[in-house]
Amino acid sequence: MISIRHQLVAFCVLCAAALMQAAQATADDPRMTPLVKAVQTCRDFVVNIHTVKVGVEEGESRFFTPKSRRINGMGTGIVVDERGYIVTNYHVIHDVDEITVTLIGGETLVGRPVSFDRKKDMAIIHVQSSKPLTVMNIGTSSDIMLAEQVFAVGNAFGYEFTVTEGIVSALGRDVEVDETQAYENLIQTDASINPGNSGGPLLNVNGEVIGINVAIRAGAQRIGFAIPIDDARRTVARLLSTERLNRVSHGVFATDVKSPGSHRLIVDEVAEGSAGAICGLKKGDCIQSVRGLTVRDNADWERALLDIPVGKVLDVEVNRGGKTSSLKFTVGIGRNVAEGVAAKEPVTVPVQTVTASAAKIPAATTLTPVRERARRIFGLQLAGLTPRERQALGRQYNGGLSIVSVARGSLAEAQGVRAGDILLGLDGFETLDDRNLTFILDEKRMKSLTDIKFTIFRDAEALEGYMTLPATAAR
Asked: Cα–Cα 20 to 30 A to 59, which of 74, 272, 386, 434?
């Protein structure tokens, strides 16, 4: 008789053989192409976006009450953080009243705008999900090849999760859409991109995002364009900046270094006395992870710190000289690079609710006489530019002054000026330092003015406006 033990062994052998046979059948299935496998890996991090803009229909007669109308829009988004942060094109959500996000399983969530870059045509929206979302599988645009096979996933004409396939037709395209919108260094593809695909991913056969679909050539056939992912990730890093959204500085300035199979974040500079310096980060360090999240670029670094309570201690892994080192990073301590002052005690920062009018002036801050005058007249607390702000200005502008906070009910708040803007000029003159301010705000000059023109820098563009001066402004 065959023993029970022998029967179990035989059963296990049969099961193993069956599993191997099934795996072989899958591997030999001619339908399981690289594109099919890639689509299966990417669908969880692609979302469909539906928007509504409420307008007014003008009646044929002025005696009839105008009727409101709802203009529906559509687009696509890519999950960049498991907590519900999603990147899309700015034109998808520009000037809309409602944003609805649909996940692959059919769940619909309400989206809200977080930040945007009009010039780069990119925006971040946020949804509250009951479970962590799947984050995008990042590739690199540094090694894209002409005629490489690619595909696009998106909400084409409202048909959710549409997949189209093509090749890379050209690289480095500069495209001007109209007088207000132009793109640089785009990927051209013949994968069919339609209205609704905007903000969705262009993927390679490995299911890695190598671009963000942004535009099509009107009247042409199969000429579409995508923002290279390496460029897009740099913009995402700015849009998710903890200084921008939480008003909490880390003091670390780093560069994305990307090549095939390698994504690294290398520290260039650490501001003296900042949280990064206190943590022990040094120039040349390769940041590998923060609170368990793998860091591949500045976008990962910023999202790892975003919305973390001030005073929270995070584990940071770095590669220094070929060896892995473990550091402790405390959120919100040290010198605030944006404000140029040292925080004596951690202050709890409300997540994404800090606005210009709500920004607080630290008690330790001391203003020069002319900056105190600017605060009294306009409600602006000004400070010198940080290295990152100088870099953001580029070569087009000579400099400016950082707007640290905007007082409630002030002239500046009434004109929409926010904390985090850069003051480029007043009354047609540059505001590079206190000497410029002293000249501009001279009492004799101010007595002759009834309003004053201002120029600020925000989201990679210069904005202008006018503030009407009260009679007491010259005092």
From this structure: 74
The string of pLDDT tens digits covering residues 265-309 is 999 999 999 999 999 999 999 999 999 999 999 999 999 999 999
Burial of 142 per CB tally in 10 Å (0-12, 13-18, 19+) = middle
Say which DSSP state 138 is in.
Answer: B
Sign of the CA dihedral running 384, 387, 388, 391 = positive
Amino acid occupying residue 155: N
Active-site residues, by number, are: 91, 121, 198
CA nearest to 360, candidates 384, 381, 331, 335: 381
- Hey, what are 131's tokens? 């479970």
Amino acid symbol at 402? S
Nearest C-alpha neighbor of 299 from the set 140, 98, 413? 140
Lookup result for tokens 């301010």:
437
**Hey, is 91 helix, strand or coil?**
helix
Burial label for 430, CB within 10 Å (0-12, 13-18, 19+), is middle
Which residues are paired to 49 by β-bridges? 75, 101
Residue 164, C-beta contacts closer than 8 angstroms, at least 6 positions apart: 151, 152, 156, 191, 192, 193
How does pLDDT run across 147-160, given as a tens digit for each residue? 999 999 999 999 99
CA pair distance 435, 429, nearest whole angstrom: 11
Cβ atoms < 10 Å from Cβ of 74:
22
Q: What's the length of the chain?
A: 475
Alpha-carbon distance values, 309 to 115, 279, 338, 353, 416 (Å): 20, 16, 18, 13, 28
In 3D space, the residue among 88, 203, 86 whose CA is nearest the CA of residue 134 turns out to be 86
How far the first Cα of the chain sits from its last, in Å, is 110
Question: Which DSSP state fits 161?
Answer: E
